[in-house]
């Protein structure tokens, strides 16, 4: 704990020094950045949906396309530009699960008449933009570009299917691991053999870490410099359980609830992956996540909550397959830095005036302190998980920066965050190996 207090104080002192400079063309080599692969947060990647007359949801008004229709869906989408309701779009996105013993990814197929893909993959265009054209990555991206990184070459975005858990692919043509691997190798070559940073927000770094754990040590030593996580969501969040009852809306105003989408949310592996993991939320952290007119549910009651709401064997099987599927137990073999926000009121659960069921309006919320999206247990256990994993590593380091009262959705435009990120990502020419002690993230920050 003392270590983090130290860091927080240190970071404040650093603020004055970290003038993020615009570097003139020609001079950029002196402060050359490592190439970067960005892993956005949940629902910030564009999903391109093409739907035709073969698809129909008779129970939802106007949820069919008489002619093939194509549109992009993501957090902040403009409802006025899409001729379907959000409930209908979520229905189109429901993957169909076949219970078999085959490879996880082969057990899923799309709705008949629906094709889903990741457009503009590997470039900043694959990020969904708000109706005013902005994305939460804009400030960081403009710093990267000012320092010579090139969109689609040395500055890449690993957009991913946010319905999927990191360990499953729902779009067979665009599998996560091979796409990320070839992007990293390409960015490395384009920067004349400079190792690549993986950076990600919220759920994003969990996909990045899962990727790293699939690669062998020699490959990582050659190609990867480090992993930077902004509010990495390894432990899962209490609030994700509310999506099974009260659904989710990703319209621009607020990431809130939409009861009409609850059943669809329960078909997405990611809903299970990023719901609080009972193996981590134990003892006094076994928090209340749902309170109904008849009982209260804690994280350890998650399966009973699904049963009481009316879900069946498929959802219980998904819970076993996907909840807690990716944790930092396996050290990825590169330096890791985590930023986390604290001390803001954060929703961890919901209250209902009726017994649990699917598609409920919530009548209140349960809160703790956190970054407004992830509760304190997420930041504390993320640090604990990584410190334990790092203790087993020979050279690589884990370090972290606390951001007092910084909201989950504003990390990426914070001057402190941008300054430290650019500092960490600046090429140090005298460092040979990825995890030499001299390359320790804390040492870098202390300079
Ligand atoms: C509708 O989409 C399905 C699946 O994407 C495809 O197999 C079928 O040929 C399409 N039908 C028409 C009429 O376009
Ligand atoms: C764009 O819209 C978002 C959300 O409404 C808002 O927070 C942001 O300040 C806007 N940015 C600009 C440049 O207008
Ligand atoms: C990479 O090497 C080529 C050929 O030597 C050179 O023209 C180019 O400027 C170098 N690029 C960087 C980013 O160092
Ligand atoms: C899937 O199959 C397994 C093994 O045959 C079984 O235990 C499980 O209950 C089945 N799940 C569903 C959703 O039918
Ligand atoms: C180590 C650390 O900074 N933990 C913080 C996690 O978040 C809570 C609430 O936001 C803080 O009270 C903890 O200090």
Automatic annotation (TrEMBL):
Q: Enumerate the SUPFAM superfamilies for this protein.
A: alpha/beta-Hydrolases
Q: Identify one Pfam family in the record.
A: LCAT
What keyword terms does UniProt attach to this protein? Answer: Acyltransferase, Signal, Transferase
Top-rank taxon of the source lineage equals Eukaryota
Give one GO biological process term: lipid metabolic process
Signal sequence, renumbered to the chain = 1-25
**Gene Ontology MF terms in the entry:** O-acyltransferase activity
Identification of the protein by name? Lecithin-cholesterol acyltransferase
Say which species the protein is native to. Answer: Klebsormidium nitens
Q: What is the lineage of its organism?
A: Eukaryota, Viridiplantae, Streptophyta, Klebsormidiophyceae, Klebsormidiales
């Amino acid at each position: 704990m003392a270590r983090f207090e130290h860091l927080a104080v240190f970071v404040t002192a650093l603020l004055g020094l970290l003038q993020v400079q615009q570097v003139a063309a020609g001079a950029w080599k002196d402060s050359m950045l490592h190439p970067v692969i960005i892993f956005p947060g949940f629902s910030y990647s564009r999903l391109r949906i093409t739907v035709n007359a073969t698809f129909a949801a008779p129970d939802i008004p106007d949820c069919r396309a008489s002619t093939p229709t194509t549109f992009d869906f993501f957090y902040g989408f403009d409802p006025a530009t899409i001729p379907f309701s959000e409930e209908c779009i979520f229905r189109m996105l429901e993957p169909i699960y076949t219970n078999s013993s085959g490879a996880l990814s082969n057990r899923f197929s799309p709705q008949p008449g629906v094709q889903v893909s990741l457009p503009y993959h590997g470039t900043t265009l694959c990020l969904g933009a708000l109706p005013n054209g902005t994305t939460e990555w804009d400030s960081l991206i403009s710093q990267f570009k000012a320092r010579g990184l090139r969109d689609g070459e040395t500055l890449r975005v690993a957009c991913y299917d946010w319905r999927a858990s990191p360990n499953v692919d729902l779009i067979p043509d665009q599998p996560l691991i091979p796409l990320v691997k070839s992007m990293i190798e390409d960015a490395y070559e384009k920067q004349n053999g400079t190792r690549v940073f993986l950076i990600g927000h919220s759920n994003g770094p969990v996909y990045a870490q899962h990727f790293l754990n699939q690669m062998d040590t020699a490959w990582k030593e050659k190609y990867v410099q480090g992993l930077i996580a902004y509010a990495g969501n390894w432990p899962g969040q209490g609030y994700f359980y509310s999506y099974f009852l009260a659904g989710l809306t990703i319209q621009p105003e607020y990431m809130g609830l939409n009861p009409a989408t609850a059943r669809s949310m329960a078909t997405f592996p990611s809903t299970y992956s990023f719901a609080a993991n009972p193996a981590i939320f134990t003892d006094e952290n076994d928090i209340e996540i749902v309170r109904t007119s008849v009982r209260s549910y804690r994280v350890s009651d998650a399966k009973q909550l699904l049963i009481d709401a009316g879900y069946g064997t498929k959802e219980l099987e998904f819970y076993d397959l996907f909840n807690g599927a990716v944790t930092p137990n396996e050290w990825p073999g590169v330096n890791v830095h985590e930023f986390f926000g604290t001390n803001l009121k954060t929703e961890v659960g919901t209250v209902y005036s009726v017994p649990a069921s699917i598609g409920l309006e919530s009548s209140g919320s349960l809160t703790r302190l956190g970054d407004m999206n992830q509760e304190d247990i997420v930041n504390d256990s993320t640090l604990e998980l990584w410190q334990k994993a790092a203790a087993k590593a020979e050279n690589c380091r884990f370090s972290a920066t606390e951001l007092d009262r910084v909201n989950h959705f504003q990390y990426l435009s914070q001057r402190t965050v941008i300054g430290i990120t650019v500092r960490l990502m600046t090429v140090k020419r005298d460092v040979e190996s990825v995890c030499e002690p001299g390359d320790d993230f804390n040492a870098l920050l202390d300079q």
